[in-house]
Amino acid sequence: MEFQHEQGRIFALSDEGKLLCEVTFPVTGGVAELNHTFVDESLRGQGVAGKLMAAAVEEIRANGWKIRPTCSYAVSWLEKHAEHADLLV
Prior knowledge:
Shape: globular
Structural class: alpha+beta
Distance between the termini: 31 Å
Largest sheet: 4 strands, antiparallel
Oligomer: single chain
Strand order of the largest sheet: 1-2-3-6
């Protein structure tokens, strides 16, 4: 699956244009608010949400931003990946 990137959003669409998964992280004042993660039922249990989070964190780090997780999945994922604790505000 190939992710598409927009400002503050990483996502994937089906061949028909249906949203399959996404993570959103609007940026204000150098802080990215990880506020939404979605994975279509057809993809659940395949690690897609984790791949989305890893891609988002990579983009956030590359831009020198910090992270404020407000999505429950983002909070949980970041707790399990302490190597990114330096990005938390």
